[in-house]
Write the structure tokens for this entry.
Amino acid sequence: MPRKEPFILKITTAKDHDVTALPNLVREDDRAVFGDKGYFSDKLKREARGNGVYWGVLEKGKRGKGLSSSQKKRNRKHASIRAKVEHVFRVIKCQFGYTKTRYRGLEKNAVQIYSLVALGNLYQFRHQLANT
């Protein structure tokens, strides 16, 4: 049985839209997909539901029309789940002071981001690690 990666991190340039990276982030054995409004796509939503994957990407309003009350309620529920993952990004920005890229080239910046995400995860669990 192949080893399942705990998380997938995809680094792209700023000109690439978030939703273009989404198909590369979803694994075959995933049962749910959560993301912010930048990952919303009706086509990907239909595909995911057709494959039996729970679609937890936040809804966004259509042009000239806001969200319905049920969409707002659903977004609030999904945002509370996503918040657990977003804490790593808060640690990277606030605790480690990462605000902008330092190097030229995607590869060097990707290595820095991978390191920061790994350290951010360790930072979050530092108390549990110290007690073992």
In short: The radius of gyration is 17 Å. The first helix runs from residue 22 to 25.
